[in-house]
Amino acid sequence: MTTPDPDRAAAAQTFYSRWAGVYDRLARRAPGIRRLRRAAVARLDLSPGDTVVDVGCGTGANLLLLRDRVGPDGTVVGVDFAPGAVRRARALVAREGWTNVAVCRGDATRLPLDGADAVLATFLVGMLPDPAATVDGWLDGLDPSRIALLDLARSHRLPGRPLNPLFGVVVATTAPPGTRDHHDDPPARVLDRRVAGAHRTLLERCPSTSHGTRMGGFAYLSAGGR
């Protein structure tokens, strides 16, 4: 597994904390985003009483969907590395009075947890230095029976493919400062490789899988059962 660079990790934490409010609005209100999140949660096939971990939970956009699925006897744990995002997610939990939802600060590559029925990661793996190894770590360390990944990357089919240049601009604009300096390729190509590696690992390691694209091919949704 690639070891995260401490300076880059600290810069990313500061960046995502500073812009947590903007990302919160995008995470909840961007066109089609709620439909995508609902689809990812549905692929987990959660049951009442399950424990589910939302890795890279951000400001908490998935928490209500997950809580509704596991019910009052289940447990939802959100994990994120950006202090600003964690504060917003915890404030949401407090406002709603959810006693079975917890949000903790942690590194997705070294989760402070040791077990779960299901794992969800939405729009996360493109930020990880070695996402394939990280997904391996989730499957080994948390030993979930179900896992789902939802990510954005460049489209390889119509009607989305002609919009790839615009998508690349958006990726470069929203990436933490200095991202391009650490890679030989533009951020969109790095994102493509990371998303492909993570989803491929899931599909290879889980005996029961599903995979598909949405939103013109830009949204990649993979799920697996063990």
From TrEMBL:
It holds the Pfam family Methyltransf_31. The keyword Methyltransferase applies. InterPro entries: Methyltranfer_dom (IPR025714), SAM-dependent_MTases_sf (IPR029063). GO terms for molecular function: methyltransferase activity. Residues 47-131 form the Methyltransferase domain. Signal peptide: none annotated. GO terms for biological process: methylation. Keywords: Methyltransferase, Transferase. This is Class I SAM-dependent methyltransferase. It comes from Haloplanus rallus.
